User: Fold these one by one.
Assistant:
Number 1:
Amino acid sequence: MPTTDETHWRTDDSVFLSVPGGREIADWFELIPSFHDATLEKLELTNDAVSLVIRAFRMTSQVDSKGYFVLDKHALVTLRLSGVTGIQLEGESGVIISDLGMRRLSVKPNGWHTGSGPEAGDFEVAWDSCVGFDGVIFAREVTLAFHPVEP
């Protein structure tokens, strides 16, 4: 996934669970989701905030009669990032997520040419896509919400 420190990383579970709404999402999916094969339905940028709406599901270990994994726990998950300190988007429109991660920055990343950029302690939310664009958003605050939907 896009990264500020040239390392591959995954969601910091303790950070995800500490974010408002994180525990409820983990309880719904019965795990901390990576959002693999989820679709980015909406990306909204405002003055100092970003909102991502992701159509997600849980992939079970069960297989249907056609040999496909059974998907359940469908939901629209909203990530609201406020106090945005940096954004990087690269690729084409339309997004199927390979992996989405969330962590806190331990150090200030280099390479920001405008504004002060992200600081140590900011949240980093980043995703790789198998279709569409990759992205990383840095912010002071993150909240999560979801509501179940039909497949």
Number 2:
Amino acid sequence: MSAKSIFRHTLHKIEQHPGAGVTFEAECLWCEWKAGPSTGGAAVDFAWMSHTGRSGHSGFRRVCTSFAMVYVPSGGPYGSSGQRTCRTRSAR
């Protein structure tokens, strides 16, 4: 007996998670200095400008983190809410 695969294409949306915001962080490229996570980008900018003033280091890696969800819009195979419910694959 051979195995079969079925691929189905559906429309989907990717959106930011409604309960989570964006988090900003910064890391100096010259030393181990880091600005911890903050929900305000301006606070991180101020922290790294202060670090630059004290150390002369001007290169930073800025990290912006957000959380996203993928879902099928209403009317799709996951029901009217558009939210995917937990489904397990049946053993064959």
